[in-house]
Amino acid sequence: MKRRSGFGWLELAIGILLIVLGILAFVKPDLILTGLVVVYGIAAVCMGVADILLYIKVEQYTGFGPVISLVSGILSVMSGMMLLVYPRAGAVVLTLLFPIWFIAHCISRLTHLNRIRIIAGRGVHSFTLILNVIGLILGFMMLLSPLFTLAALRCFAGVYLVLLGIDSILIAASEMGTRY
């Protein structure tokens, strides 16, 4: 008897959380460096757990992708926990951790493009590819310029978080429609 994967529901929840964060980044920009540090911490922990679960799910495959998922997941969980434990320091450190999280998450998604293409099709595959290449560029720009990071947290990150949320929801819909 075949059963559905539970992974799609986690991906859906992450997608919704990312869209809400993206909208909040536009509606309440003054909260980005203070109140939303905790919410970003929760999102980073959730995404890290999802990456670690993905590693566990695909560990039998050899190659670079599963290991990147594990490393990305651990970095995301560590970053999220730091933001949750030290929210005041998190506002300052966010200018460094946020770009690292962007880069780690984009690399993790890029390593799973073949699986996404098989499960979700070429349209979602292309959307994920373009979105994560843009995310890598944005992540490195934020890493090189802390002032750009502050501006990006309000503008670019809001848009990017909404797009990441949409990407996660598309992947979740594909995962939930696939039988294992």
Structure explained in plain terms:
Helices cover 85% and strands 0% of the residues. It is globular and about 40 Å long. The chain has one domain. The longest helix has 25 residues, at 87-111. With 180 residues, the protein is mainly alpha-helical. Helix 2 (36-58) packs antiparallel against helix 3.
Question: What is the domain tally?
Answer: 1
Query: Which segments are poorly predicted (pLDDT under 50) over 5 or more consecutive residues?
Result: none
Can you give the mean pLDDT? 78
Number of E strands = 0
Radius of gyration, in angstroms, nearest whole number? 16 Å
Give the helices and strands as they follow along the chain: HHHHHHHH
Oligomer: single chain
Shape by Cα distribution: globular
Helix content: over 70%
Helix count, per DSSP? 8
**Biggest pleated sheet:** none
Secondary structure layout plus pairing:
Layout: H1 7-27, H2 36-58, H3 64-85, H4 87-111, H5 113-120, H6 122-144, H7 146-154, H8 156-177
Helix pairs in contact: 1-2, 1-8, 2-3, 2-4, 3-4, 4-6, 4-7, 5-6, 6-7, 6-8
